[in-house]
């Protein structure tokens, strides 16, 4: 009886040990590394996601996923799948969503291991967004300076999408950039109603940092593209002031645009 009891105890111990080992193995996740060919692109460009899976799981599937925060989603959604190759390697070319989006690569559970995810990378897909007159951009203040005079004429050319100062060369408008924009552009001149000898200064600020300061006189136009310090900038401001207070002057910045990667909202 004692011998039988010892055998029975040994069997129970072996079963318990096997169960514990199985549970420990199931709790071990796959490890997934991730590299991307670019993290900043223009909208429509494609990016290569690549890396390795450990332990190697040749022939199994991986999921390329983005984090969906739209319409209360708040979950990872799969946009592409790829197959693990020899040595646990993988590669997949993907067209990222417009704007700023978080991505990862996920290996589902299998072979007694739990699912594992790579690190998260933020992909920024940029495009030019219109400012002024029914803009693509949100405005914090100064709406009255947006297209307020109807069509203006600069050096004989009519412009309909523009920012303008008032007749005294004054005005200020701030567009909200949400720390996602990295360039601004426009063409600056004077509306032809400005007086002969009019003189003004046009400026662009990225928050408190001045990034453009341009003198504007009759008969001249200047097209500029300026870098915006993206991470530090919550808004871009246009302003102007007359350099000769005795002469009416309308400063005009036509076709202004910002190059941004706003988070998707659809």
Describe it.
There is one protein chain. The protein is rod-shaped, with a radius of gyration of 30 Å. The chain is built from one helix and 21 strands. The N and C termini lie far apart (73 Å). The protein is mainly beta and 266 residues long. The strands form four sheets. Strands 3, 5, 6, 8, 9, 10, 14, 16, 19 and 21 form a ten-stranded mixed β-sheet that branches. A five-stranded antiparallel β-sheet has the order 11-15-20-17-18, with no helix packed on it. 30% of the residues are buried.
Order of helices and strands: HEEEEEEEEEEEEEEEEEEEEE
Instruction: Count the beta strands.
Output: 21
- Give the helix level as a range of percent: under 10%
Low-confidence stretches: 1-26
> How far apart, in Å, are the first and last alpha carbons?
73 Å
**Secondary structure tally, helices:** 1
| Overall mean confidence score, pLDDT | 89
Major pleated sheet? 10 strands, mixed
Task: Write down the overall geometry.
Answer: rod-shaped
